[in-house]
């Protein structure tokens, strides 16, 4: 049975038919055996990357009979950290580490050490945690359009995903309470972060994905057509993760306001860049609470806010909307229970570090950091444009997505990996992006990136026969209409991560 022969016809089938066909094919022993072989080959090629320490350091599948000496533990962990830190310290990584200066890390670590036992769940024991979190929220709100007298409020969360989950939970509960909506729907462009799909999955909200234009910005007309009586929120990105472009937030949020539904600006990536870029004179379209239709915003303090990993902020236009994300229990035998976010116990040290980072940076610090990042990004963007085989997708300010009409962009990315680079693969269409951080603003890093990218292009042109590691995976994802095959591969990859 030649499945590839029939793939062009399969793609035109309704999705429900495709799922049935996929289930049928999986019952055929020969097809199942071929898929198992493909899974095995792909995962075997990835195992060395995610499990590089096997046989090199002690492995503990069970508790040791006797506790290992603390100095030996520290020595091993320091050795591993030393091996892993070089790439991001030298600016070879897209995003991931946004500040990374040694003195800055030492400062944040000292703050963390002071608060390592703090748990905000016990506000009576550690009232300092409430102080830090309240001020982090207030400072972030003021940066994102809150004016004196406004009711704009929010909470500190563990990251952008939790901020988004909580906002979508709040809209679901608000719509259920105020409008009686039992089958809620949310509208998001296809470029909006996948965390919104996670929220839809967790909270039983139907996700309506809408197209984008040729610059990867949300199509407002398509969003207007997608609105129904069950729509509870519309989402826009400032900017989007894949291509770094800002959706037409003003038009989208006004559309939401006219229909009496919520609008969430996902500024997880841009919340601590765009306000300062605007002050520096860049043409930044409005995206924050200055727009009356914007009812919530997420902004990650652990990205371009330069706090330690594990904090973000979700903001709401009113305390009433914020209350819909809270959880309370009034009749539990263990006492009255309340928590503002998804977690119960939380690391108060991270909130303290977040507060310290914002206060230590100040407006001048964020302005200077943003200036350096945007100037470096402009240099890299110009260099990419000068490579005939490459083209930019959209017009990101510092999240730069690029692809090729003539080369396998994933093999270009893999060659870059041999030079030490860790970049982000994109799909639909195939592309790669680099999120420029302060690590890239160091002397010589931008030049090194462009030099290695030119070398990667020449290598792929000269070796068209090479298969690569990730190219087959993304190639499969791009060509196979059977999404269950890719889903199974991703789940097996997660299994691999937890394999001792």
Protein model, in words:
Among the domains are: 3-50 and 472-497, no CATH class; 113-359, 3-Layer(aba) Sandwich (Aspartate Aminotransferase, domain 2). The protein has 17 helices and 13 strands. It is globular, with a radius of gyration of 24 Å. The protein is of the alpha/beta class and 500 residues long. Helix 6 runs parallel beside helix 13 (348-385), helix 7 (160-179) packs across helix 8 (195-203) and helix 14 (409-418) crosses helix 15. Helices cover 48% and strands 12% of the residues. Strand 4, helix 10 and strand 5 (262-266) form a beta-alpha-beta unit. The strands form three sheets. The chain has a seven-stranded mixed beta sheet with strand order 1-7-6-5-4-2-3, with helices on both faces. A four-stranded antiparallel beta sheet has the order 10-11-13-12. Strands 8-9 form a two-stranded antiparallel ribbon. The protein has helices at residues 3-10, 15-26, 29-50, 70-89, 102-114, 127-143, 160-179, 195-203, 220-226, 249-259, 274-279, 319-323, 348-385, 409-418, 445-462, 470-479, 483-497; strands at 153-157, 185-189, 206-210, 231-237, 262-266, 296-299, 312-316, 327-329, 337-339, 391-393, 399-403, 424-426, 431-435.
